[in-house]
Design goal:
Blueprint lengths: L13 H12 L3 H14 L4 E7 L5 E6 L39 H8 L1 E7 L6 E7 L2 E3 L10 E3 L4 E7 L6 H6 L3 H18 L6 E6 L7 E3 L5 H9 L1 H4 L2 E6 L17 H14 L2 H4 L7 E7 L9 E6 L2 E2 L3 H12 L9 E7 L5 E2 L10 E2 L2 H28 L1
Parallel strand pairs: 1-8, 12-14
Antiparallel strand pairs: 1-2, 2-7, 3-4, 3-7, 4-5, 4-6, 8-9, 10-11, 11-14, 12-13, 15-16
Helix pairs in contact: 1-3, 2-5, 5-6, 10-11
The protein binds adenosine-5'-diphosphate and magnesium ion.
The site of magnesium ion has 5 residues, from helix 2.
Protein name: DNA mismatch repair protein S5 domain-containing protein
Subcellular location: Nucleus
Organism: Cafeteria roenbergensis (Marine flagellate)
Amino acid sequence: ASSAGAPSIRRLSQEVVNRIAAGEVVHRPANAVKEMLENSLDAGATNITITAKGGGLKFLQIQDNGHGIRKEDMGIVCERFTTSKLREFGDLNSIQTYGFRGEALASISHVARLTITTMTRDGPCAFKASYLDGAPVPAGPGGSPGPQPCAGVPGTQITVEDVFYNMPTRLRAFRSPSEEYNRIIEVVTRYAVHCGDRGVAFTCRKHGSSSPDVHSPASKDRRAVVRHLYGAALAKELLDVSGGPGLKPGAAATGPCGSSAGEGAAGSATAAATSDAGDAAAEGTPFAFSGLVSNANYSMKRRVFILFINGRLVDCPPIRKAVEAVFSDYLPKGTHPWVYLRLDLPGDAVDVNVHPTKREVHFLGEDEVVEAVASRVADVLMGANASRSFFAQT
Ligand code: ADP
Ligand code: MG
């Protein structure tokens, strides 16, 4: 082409398309961990163990005791847009699982070597298959690419090796395996807190290490789980918060893993009666929130702000800033509270499909919700503080 002419447009090869898309879903090992954790939770697992080597860049393994994958599905499980969870676009508004796009395993298989060993509860044995670029590959030289029978226990084990082996630039950008490992720990810890009321045990350790770095029991008492994860010093300073007008029964909130409108609404029914947030939002988007926050006695250097909206781990800077602003009246400058909040909204108020990593969630009535959460936190903090000074005086 002459330098003055328009460049010709060519179609990218499917391989390039897939690798680019995969790189958007899996930025770093912690993204892969989140996707695989969610798959385990979707599979009904009550025990999830993560093992990492080299910050997850060399080796990452996740073992669960969920329902497993049928042998017949093992051929397509790593193809893009293959899922057992979503059938119709309209189902997105009522999706009850973390996954729905069938993109995670496919993406991982385009940037790493992936091996699945899985056994269903009624299966005769476990089956194992390795994958590259969305398709099964022979396990060894001369081997067949199909699932191979092997010994195992019901559940699924997924091994991810040499992530970004085919994206050298990205691989070089990772400075420190320990930073990547810390991000993995952060993801696992957040899910452990969120699932802390439904009896799911989480363990995360470095490969070859006998002492886990995250270990939470299969408890249904979230305070007990927080004590295991963060220690007694925080656990004894926690306050309950809840509020919001509640969700109408039947107006199903979306959300995986037991996050249901019923639960949210029931939990907040009393809060709504006593908090003025109820009236303010009466004609707006119905919502319910609940959680645990540290009291004015406790502060930490590192920020821990764990937010799940409709069961999904998300970022919502307006909520975070409003809550932190409430605490700034009480805490030393430069320190942070510890906050865990779950917020439930009607499924059709939230667009879960905004971003490939599903990190960002937009919803209707954001201002009302921010205001209601912040004012409830302020009430709870003030109440706790007032009763403490009252006791201190007597
Ligand atoms: P999605 O979660 O969006 O369906 P994924 O690529 O994450 O897509 O997973 C594809 C499919 O593989 C899932 O729909 C599920 O059927 C199956 N799967 C993945 N991980 C597990 C697991 N740990 N246990 C059981 N099934 C799994
Ligand atoms: Mg998934």
